[in-house]
Amino acid sequence: MRRPSISIVFIYSLTITLLAFAYRSTWRLAVIGLLNGAAGIYYGKRYRKLILLLLALSVWGTFLDALAVSNTGPVAFVLGPLTVRRGALTATANIGLRLTAIAGAALLFAAPSDPRSIVRGLEEELHMPSGLAFSLAYALRLIPLMRRDLGEIQLARLERGYRKTPLTPRDMGSLIMPLLSVAYERASWAGISAELRGFGLRKPRRRKIRVGMPEIIVLSALAAQIIIPLLLP
Amino acid sequence: MKARYTAVDYTMLGVVAVVSGLIFWATWFIYDLGSAVGGPVVARLVSYGLWFIGAPLAASLIRKPLSAFLGETLGALIETIIPTAGGFTNLIYGLAQGAASELAYALLGYRRWGWKAGALAGVFAAFPCVALDAVLFNEIATAGVMALWLAAAIISGAIYGAVASTASLAVRGEER
Fold it and tell me: Number of folded domains in chain A?
């Protein structure tokens, strides 16, 4: 079966993000958090470790925030001098589930497709202004080029007797400034080149959103995640 | 003030989008580490301004109306595509912070693009950011604590906004 249309997955992910903020009860958040978290981790293999690490750090940070802000209600447990109350645990669970739903939805959107087809889908199906689509496409093209530039700058630093990885602000400056300067120079010429080739006259391609079986499955999953939580307390 | 964007402006926006998108991505680690080690105030102080730098970077480079808004928003979109744990929340924050920073440049009549304007853009972005934290993540505390969080975000925004504008000026060869 083919992949669902980028714009439908975009709408799905955006709606899940909004639902994650609309739902306030732990049960409702658990439905969308667990579903999207599991699906996102399954489909987003490339980013799995990174997202899990970020989620773990976020939940820990949220717990510390909750101790400062929501540590109310009956005592849940005592850890040395620290009294943890149910309010802090509930707030941590709610925000953890909310973040899991959001991260899972983002993985479902970003991981199965390559960035270039995402930009093309946003421009052709969701009618993103062509200039902005051009900026995004250029930005994505720039990532590997900047990675190569970074390698060359690091090599030049090593040959001059400096450390490869920046540690001090001065190091950071001497690494970032040439990187930005090269990117700026390259962007100037790329822009001039595009303008001379008739950038202003370019007509963006538009196409209708396809609605087949994959799209119906995605929209049904979205509808279920709107209806089922409403039946819960 | 010319508002028409050329291909050169769009490629500059692309540079800002990728640079700020990567910085936004890395800032998640800085925020989480700051939060885990020093709590909410330290986390906001060391990281929030980094999430506002798309606007001053773009505005100082492109110098046209809407450049601050577009720089911040496209950076957030790149951060969403990369992706991070924030997912589409990044885009919501990016739109709000970009609009606030744009307001700073609009109030200056789109005539000042130096480090002071960058710092002001960072200061303005702190308000919707802290408001969205409260609305979206229930980060609501007593008035004193909220004021402390806002102050940390403002200081962070001012510092990183000034640094971002200075870097843009240096890249344009207008270091002063």
Answer: 2
Burial of residue B29 (number of CB atoms within 10 Å: 0-12, 13-18, 19+): middle
Looking at the structure, do residues A106 and A43 belong to the same domain, yes or no?
A: yes
B70 touches chain A (CB under 8 A): yes
CB A149 within 8 A of CB A182: yes
- Inform me whether the C-beta atom of residue A109 falls under 8 Å from chain B C-beta atoms: yes
A132 at interface of B, judged by CB pairs closer than 8 A: yes
DSSP A188-212: HHHHHHHHHTTGGGPPPP--PPP-S
ipTM confidence score: 0.86
Residue A120 lies in a domain: no
Q: Is the peptide bond before A144 cis (omega within 30 degrees of 0)?
A: no
Tell me the per-residue pLDDT of B40-93, one tens digit each, with 9 for 90 and over. 899 999 999 999 999 999 999 999 999 999 999 999 988 888 767 777 888 899
Taking only the tens place, the pLDDT of each residue in A129-176 is 888 888 988 988 888 888 898 889 889 888 988 887 777 777 777 888
List the single residue in A with minimal CA-CA distance to B12: A187
Residues spanned by the domain of A45: 6-115+209-231
CATH 1.10.3470 given to domain B7-171: no
pTM of the full structure: 0.82
d(CA A120, CA A133): 8
How confident is the model over A25-62, as pLDDT tens digits? 899 999 999 999 888 888 877 777 777 887 787 788 77
Query: Which of A134-143, A219-228, B109-118 shows the lowest mean pLDDT across its residues?
Result: A134-143
Amino acid at B64: K
* Residue bearing tokens 């946003």: A122
Judge contact between B131 and B84, C-beta under 8 A: no
Q: Flag if B88 and A13 touch (Cβ within 8 Å).
A: yes
The one-character DSSP state at B175 is -
Residue of chain B with shortest Cα separation from A183: B15
DSSP 3-state of A233: coil
